[in-house]
Design a protein that fits this description.
The chain is of the alpha/beta class. It has a single domain (13-140), classed as Ribosomal protein L13 (Ribosomal Protein L13p, Chain: A), CATH 3.90.1180.10. The chain contains 6 helices and 5 strands. The strands form 2 sheets. A 3-stranded parallel β-sheet has the order 1-2-5.
Amino acid sequence: MKMTKVTKPFEVERDWILIDAEGQTFGRILTQAATYLRGKHKPSYTPNVDCGDYVVIINAKKAVFSGNKLDSKEYFRHSGYFGSTRSTKLSDMLENHTEKLYRLAVRGMLPKTKLGKQMIKKLKVYEGAEHPHTAQIGKGS
């Protein structure tokens, strides 16, 4: 009888993956990033272990949005008090809080547990082409 290999946390080898968002569709970038963060691209994937890689997204402001999402899509936040709902348009979030926009969107694709919080810490988002992780990416992939 064959036994399934279960990866232990100390056996995980992490790589650094670089995603260039310039000219790519926003949702597809996020799906790819979530897959790498979760570790589903590896043959040793185990659902209850953080076996994903570090993901660096560069040129985050140059992503392409389909349809008229830049004008019509809104993000809501609520403090818990009555009448405190605030909304922000996607175009404003992209301009002012690019990293927050990417984190918010990728976070929705990860598990809503401690494991998901651990995975989202491995996401690095940069508005331009420069990033401080060049040494790690040269080694990893």
